[in-house]
Amino acid sequence: MSLGQVDGPEDSESPGRYMGMPKWDRPIAADRASPLWTATAALAAVLALAVGGWAIFDQYAASRPVGEGELFLTEVSGAAEFYANAAASGHDPALTVRSIRNDLKVEAVSVLGADGSFVASTSSNRLGQKVDGFLAGALENFAFGAIAQPVMQPIELDGVEQWEPGDVLYRVITPLSDNGALLVEYDISALLARRARQAAVQPLHLAAGAFSIVLLAGAALLLIGRQGAQRRAVQSAVERRYLKERSAELAEHNRDLEKARTDAVRALALAEETNRVRSEFVLMINHELRTPLTSVVTGTELLAGAWEQLGVEERQRILSDVVSDGRRLKDLITQMLVVARIENRSLQYELRPVSGDALHLRLQAMSPRTDLWHADVRLPSLLSDVDTLSALLVSLSDNARTHGATVVEISPSEGLPFEPLIEVGHRPPAAAYFLVRDNGPGIEAEFIPHIFEKFEKRGTASGTGLGLYLAKLMVEGIDGSISVDTGPNGTTMAVGVPLNARALRVAS
């Protein structure tokens, strides 16, 4: 058998229909006829037999006479249970016996006390009277009893006399749970009429029989239609298979086209971003490097050409400006070179235990204008690169001054004291935080998502736009994070640094 081949019976009705078609493309038996046809036909037949059988059985049961014993046990016992439940619920006995009389369609319903007196009855003129004879004996023996006998007092309903003394009624007594009894009185002629049920076929039974015949006919039609459905299912299976193959081919082409479109969009976006970065870099080089370079050249030319004419203070001021601009130029070039080294993965970080005292001394030497925490504050041992961490904190403080801050302070914190507006790097699970706070004007809300991007600057601010981008690269290199919170009264940048796990274990 070839790969993908499925053996199945040929179409017996048209064996030449699939002549020349590969065998694995021919519909198998399961494709030719849905089992729903057979299942529906079988269900219709079973339902028809069930409805017909029910009609025959119910007609037989309806034609069978009902004996008094069966009738009394069904009706009177049920009435006694109904009365007991109503009495337990606090219902009025007079209303309860009237309800029982209406439901049973009998002549009278009464409740007898333990002494045989009528305590509730649909005939109010009998209240207080007592039963005697057979009924009194049944009450005394707390037993069920039925007897046909004449009534001794008239039976009234709402003051109207219904039965006169001497009229014969069928009287049934059944005990109640409270030592009383329920007395139900039937008219004998009505009772005989109820026994002789109609033996004729009932309309419901005729309708059920007709319904079963219709169901059997429907089942036969379904079996006949199944043959035609088989032929249509075979052709439909062939068409579905062909359409499925063509649909799969189209879907594959669409996926290729979508992938090509996505690649083209990504390439276009990358090219546009590259052009934007190149343009911004050229503008930055043109402004940020040429400005201090021009100042250095102009200052040195002035000193060289007019040294004797300038006073000592004037020469000192020009030299100071030249030195300041030269350092600025050096810092810009160094910053760009560091970014290039980090992006080319040529700058390595060595994470080792760092003490708080060592970091404090390093920051004092590198940034004397920044307010630092007191040296007597004990910090836990950190796991970091002390040179990179010091340069990172100094870079953040210098960046704050570049953007308008006059006061910058660095202080440690055991936890992150705010919910960051933006965060870069990976927040360590166990960390100490260094908060770089300034009193600057804050960061505009629309600029916050871009502050760590390359060459991004606010308005006409000086600098290369690489300060925070470089900070992002450095904090990622030392497995830490930078979290930012800002407002009109200043900005706080929290640098999260991993704690020395070994020192924590020793301390614990």
Written overview of the protein:
By secondary structure, the chain is an alpha+beta fold. Among the domains are: 128 residues, PAS domain (Beta-Lactamase); 156 residues, Histidine kinase-like ATPase, C-terminal domain (Heat Shock Protein 90, 2-Layer Sandwich). It has 12 helices and 15 strands. Strands 9-11-13-15-14-12 form a 6-stranded mixed beta sheet, with helices on one face. Strand 6 and strand 7 form a beta hairpin. Helix 2 runs antiparallel to helix 7 and helix 7 packs antiparallel against helix 8. The two termini are 71 Å apart. The N terminus is likely disordered.
Give a topology summary.
Elements: H1 29-32, H2 35-63, H3 68-88, H4 93-104, E1 108-112, E2 118-121, H5 133-140, E3 145-150, E4 155-157, E5 160-163, E6 168-175, E7 181-187, H6 188-195, H7 203-305, H8 312-343, E8 352-354, H9 356-366, E9 371-372, E10 382-384, H10 386-402, E11 408-413, E12 422-425, E13 431-438, H11 467-477, E14 481-487, E15 490-498, H12 501-507
Helix pairs in contact: 2-7, 3-4, 7-8, 8-11, 9-10, 10-11
Rg (CA only): 53 Å
The main sheet orders its strands as 9-11-13-15-14-12
Gap between N and C termini: 71 Å
Q: Tell me the CATH architecture of the domain at 352-507.
A: 2-Layer Sandwich
CATH superfamily annotation of the domain at 352-507: Histidine kinase-like ATPase, C-terminal domain
In round numbers, the mean pLDDT is 78
Q: Helix count?
A: 12
CATH topology of the domain at 352-507: Heat Shock Protein 90
Number of strands: 15
